[in-house]
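Hello forum,

I keep getting stuck at the same step: I have a sequence, I want structure tokens, and every attempt I make locally crashes halfway through. Rather than fight my setup again tonight, could one of you with a working pipeline run this one for me? It's a single chain of 326 residues.
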Amino acid sequence: MFQPLISYIEDIKERNHSSGAALVILKDNQIVLEHYSGYHANTNNSRPIDATSQFNVASARKSYLGLVAAFALYEGKIKSLDDLAVHYFENIDKEMLGKTTIRHLVTHSHGLHQREDGTIFREFEPGANWAYRGINIIMMTELVNRLYGKRFPEFLEERVFKPMGFNETAWQTEPNEKLVQVVDDPKEPASYKVGQTKNGMESNLHISAREFARWGNLHLNNGMDIVPREVIQLATHVQNPSYKNNDLPQNGLFWFVQGTPAKHSELGERVPKGSYQILGVTGPTLLVIPEYNVVVAKMFNKQYNYGGSNYLHYLREFSNLVADVF
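Reply #2:
Ran it on my machine without issues. Output:
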């Protein structure tokens, strides 16, 4: 039943030079598949990948930030998704922000970009287009940290991770034997992506494939009486403004959500409506399909794992394969 998915994982691992891979699938709240292969690094005597291996999930951390933003909305710290950003970001030029709203910031429709020198500029008017940038993540990280008076990873540890019993999910600051290293260049030794987290923005969140799947299952089950159902609904339902271009992706609070199948979405056209997904540049991807009561966590450890302009093809192909299996 699952061989097409395992074959896909192994093919991508070899083709894109990941040293390791993992695949965990939950169906009806039960693990129905665990697959681990390869090694923690592309060097001799590296530890084999197993159930305790913790991968750097890179930008998939946005789903964790998104949940905290949803909490802030639910608890009234942010009044509305349609609140103007100028009311929350006094240190950013008001004219530059213009009519940008919180909704724009959490759905990649804000139109802001940032140069290497830190200068913020505008690419397009708020809500007029879609672009995957970093400035909105920096802004929302700063905002929720300020609203709660603590780094958002601390908030999650207290409100979600401890109640869920997560002990293989953490923003790592020092190497350890359970951490999978990241391959930047296949011709060079892999390295640890760890660092001091000053604001939770650093891309050093490491998670085992099992807990990544459980993170998805928390959302699938509307918070499991740990997170309010309304918070999960805010995070995982389509929240972006209406686009004139129907090819653009649709988003919840950073999650990519299947509304009407779109050409530039990372979710394939056979994936049921209401499904949602998050991914990181190193290859980890978490797919939740409520219609089938399924969660799929797949892990790799290669920077730019999906490669150039082909990455959407890889993502759509895999999500379609999952939909076909179930």
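The first helix runs from residue 3 to 15. If your local run keeps crashing, start a new thread with the error log.
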